[in-house]
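Case study: DUF2057 domain-containing protein.
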Amino acid sequence: MRLMSFVALCTLGLSAQAAELTLADAVYVHQLDNQEVKNYLWNKTDKLTLSPGKHQLKVSYSKIFDDGFDSHTKVTVDEHWITIQIPAEGQYQLTTPELIDIDAAKAWQEAPSFVLEGSKGKALATLAPRPEAPPKAPADPAAAQSMAEQQLQYWWSQADDATRQRFKDWLNQQH
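Here is what the predicted structure looks like once written out:
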């Protein structure tokens, strides 16, 4: 219920410039940018409301394939990050290339990719997953410098006198 309320609020807040991303049956989103997305055993999140622009998604894949009489094989891809670019408001779908049988699914599992499709099913981008999210660059360069300065001050305060002297010597060699 909370998730539906959250989605409704997001929809109202982004109604002027919103895109709806529908997820294929076997594609699961666990995180959208810095927001966790809940998936429950019988209630998978299958649509996300996004603003146009760049988004980081933590995705996984899980599907059971029939591979013979009374035999099934589950194909999974663990959680990985992908970056999607939503060009404008509208309808989009996050899916996989067509996996017609267990052999195609197992081959895809070794080097998975996801596909961002537009409203008419046209592929807009192929997205290769990576294990970690890329670091987010600070929007303000002054803030980045301030953060670097804060980190230097912190590590300086943690160092003993010998380490500080080695650092000073190294720093003098740099100029």
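For the exam, be able to explain this: The longest strand covers residues 72-86.
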